[in-house]
Amino acid sequence: MIGLPQALLLDLDGTLVHSEHIHTEGLVRFCAGRGLELSEPERLFVIGHAWQEIYAELRLEARLGATLAEVLAGTTAAKDAMFAAGLRLPVLEGARELVSLAHAAGIAVAIVSGSARSEIVQALEVLEIGELLRFYVGAEDVVRGKPSPEGYVLAAQRLGAAPERCLVVEDSEAGIAAGIAAGMRVLATSAANPPPGRPGHQRQHAAHRVVPGLSGLQLADLAAVMTL
Questions:
Q1: Mean pLDDT of 152-169
Q2: Which stretch of DSSP H or E encloses residue 187?
Q3: Are 126 and 62 within 8 A, CB to CB?
Q4: I need a surface site. Which of 36, 79, 106, 213 has the fewest CB within 10 A?
């Protein structure tokens, strides 16, 4: 189909899986175990940001005396305990179908996430789309996370795709800003976005198009965003 993107670059948390609250709770539990209670604004900052930015913004080195690697390991352990207790990682409706649709059409698909690579692997086990991806970019692969465009620029370079031929799918303000700064088209999904006025709501107006969710998206919808 004329006008299809050359590459589909997907955010993970809040876009393919409803996981932002799980990551936040894992960090909250890790910090609480070390005597640090995170404020509501600090908890909300976790949404849409990469671990480097979370670590710096929340001043976790100074407040906990912990390295970023230790924060990641501790948060992962806290989440593992939550999963062992029966918590499930919800897959957002239409996520698998969108990846399958793009792959079948010959569009290169990759994940660009602020999550650690181990967290991406965990999510891919639930999503069951790993074999359809060219690769995934995680927090360890970049110096600066979203809203920096570094992750998206890196993904386009690895795919040999021109930025203007890449379609980014995001849910957060930081992610949308990253895709636009990379010179790409951005489709925002609001399936996991809290309503305006609710804690954690992400303003998505800067995206080229906003959809209520991924379910039902067709190749024509992807092509349409590329012309906006």
A1: 98
A2: strand 185-189
A3: no
A4: 106
- Looking at the predicted structure, is the pLDDT value of residue 83 above 80? yes
Residues in the chain: 228
Residue 13, pLDDT above cutoff 90? yes
Mean residue pLDDT of the chain comes to 95
Output b/e per residue, 155-176; b: 16+ Cβ within 10 A: bbeebebebebbbbbbbbbbbb
Residues 6+ apart with CB under 8 A from 44: 199, 200
Per the CB < 8 A criterion, the answer to whether 37 and 58 are in contact is no
Write the CB contacts of 73 (distance below 8 Å, at least 6 apart in sequence). none
155: tokens are 């993904």
Structure confidence by residue, pLDDT tens digits, 29-76: 999 999 999 999 999 999 888 899 999 999 999 999 999 999 999 999
Residue with tokens 């809290």: 194
Residue at token pair 């309503």: 195
For 84, residues 6+ apart whose C-beta sits below 8 A from its C-beta are none
Distances (CA, A) of 59 to 50, 65, 108: 14, 10, 37
d(CA 171, CA 169): 7
Calculate the alpha carbon distances from 13 to 42, 55, 95, 119, 226 in Å. Answer: 18, 18, 11, 10, 23
Cα–Cα dist 108/53, whole Å: 28
Q: Average of pLDDT values for 99-110? A: 98
| CA–CA dist 50, 177 (Å, integer) | 13
